[in-house]
Design brief:
Blueprint lengths: L9 H10 L4 H14 L45 E6 L14 H9 L5 E2 L4 E2 H4 L2 E6 L7 H17 L3 E6 L5 H6 L8 E7 L18 H5 L35 E6 L6 H10 L2 E4 H7 L1 H13 L2 E9 L21 H12 L5 E5 L10 H19 L12
Parallel strand pairs: 1-4, 1-5, 5-10, 6-7, 6-9, 7-8, 9-10
Antiparallel strand pairs: 2-3
């Protein structure tokens, strides 16, 4: 909206801010392309174009990494970056439509459309954030517990290297091992803002931890839990599992937004009531509006917590816009609402984020993958402009 004092439009103000950002990385990319990709044919007038594609252009060419960011092949060096895109191609925890194992690659592919420059957000991610693609975690198809161990160890490595983890699933069973890779390294409670159409808080589903169970286990075993009431039924019944919960992710800091519809929430609802998580239905959000809903979620998630983690299930967006998902449920967020919601949440800072349940076999025209990509970019943009991530001050002229 126009500035109340000057009448200047937000877009014009943002263009002025962007004008003050250097183009160092763009120039380095051109030089790298000419070095590694050779000089173009003599008929090409633009001599910044190389013979072999080695940069952002053409968007449909090149090797897929997220945003065509550098591929961190030697994961021991991931600490050289500020944020890392991590694929987790696992969908063995799916209870209906599989295919989310192909989510990371689909999001990488559509991300080539973007160059990281946003007038709306007044941010140039390519210049202001050292981003890499860390590749995919080696998951174990068919074995949930071994995959969980792989995921937690990998996420822990990213986080303890001082890098912001962007975790792309995969199904939502990954919420638990993802948080388990971060929470032990935070000295205090961790809040979780979970955006979804399903509550995902039941103890077991078909005798295993599935994509309907992550928040039962994340909030299980807290020191304030009452023994024998809402902890795991018994050690024996879960003897094939390596652990039974996290100590610093209390349900009081778990906010579940967008919940509703007609499927999958009965068993988890009882757990949510017993433990006292905050369940914000889609009707609640509609009546309150996005800004008030986000403010309430932040207040609850951050209360006496040292960090907040964002879990975004793509099925929270109405399947008319995001059909490529395992358990579609009409009546969810509109894309503009979802993007505004995550931007407001990111303003306060995050310790990590995940986007899950993108299932390309059910997608139409890559719409779902593109929305997942935008969720990531809008979060990164706000984290950068708010100073939680990146190096904005170093690239302003």
């Amino acid at each position: 909206m126009p500035d109340p004092k000057t009448g200047e439009l937000r877009g014009n103000r943002n263009l002025k801010r962007l004008e003050g950002i250097t183009q160092t990385k763009q120039q380095q990319e051109i030089e790298r392309g000419l070095t590694f990709g050779l000089e173009a044919a003599d008929s090409i007038n633009d001599r910044n174009i190389s013979l072999f594609s080695r940069g952002h252009q053409p968007a449909f060419a090149g090797i897929n990494t997220f945003m065509k960011a550098p591929y961190c092949e030697d994961i021991r060096n991931v600490g050289d970056y500020e944020a890392a895109f991590v694929g987790i191609p696992f969908d063995t925890g799916t209870t209906y439509r599989p295919g989310a194992r192909f989510g990371p690659q689909a999001v990488r592919q559509i991300s080539a459309l973007y160059d990281g420059y946003s007038i709306d957000g007044a941010v140039d991610i390519q210049e202001e954030l050292d981003l890499c693609d860390a590749g995919d975690i080696f998951v174990i198809p068919g074995n949930i517990e071994k995959t969980f161990d792989q995921v937690s160890k990998a996420v822990s490595h990213i986080y303890t290297s001082g890098v912001f983890p962007i975790l792309m699933g995969g199904d939502h069973s990954l919420g638990y091992p993802n948080v388990r890779g971060i929470a032990p390294h935070i000295d205090g409670n961790v809040g979780i803002i979970h955006i979804d159409r399903h509550i995902d808080m039941q103890e077991m589903d078909m005798d295993e931890r599935m994509h309907t169970t992550p928040w039962f286990w994340t909030s299980n075993g807290h020191e304030n839990q009452k023994e024998g009431k809402d902890v795991a039924t018994s050690h024996h019944s879960h003897s094939h599992m390596h652990d039974v919960g996290l100590s610093n992710c209390p349900a009081k800091n778990l906010v579940q937004m967008g919940i509703g519809g007609w499927y999958g929430s009965r068993p988890g609802s009882a757990i949510a009531r017993e433990r006292g998580s905050s369940v914000m239905t889609m009707t609640d959000i509609e009546e309150m509006g996005i800004k008030k809903a986000a403010a309430m979620a932040l207040e609850l998630a951050w209360k006496d917590a040292k960090a907040v983690y964002l879990s975004f299930d793509i099925d929270s967006i109405d399947p008319g816009f995001a059909p490529g998902t395992g358990s579609p449920e009409p009546g969810g967020l509109m894309p503009r609402e979802a993007l505004e919601l995550v931007r407001l949440i990111a303003k306060e800072g995050l310790c990590g984020m995940e986007v899950v349940e993108v299932s390309p076999p059910y997608d139409v025209n890559q719409n779902t993958s593109q929305l997942a990509c935008r969720i990531v970019l809008d979060v990164l943009g706000v984290l950068t402009t708010e100073g939680h991530l990146g190096h904005r001050n170093r690239v302003r002229t």
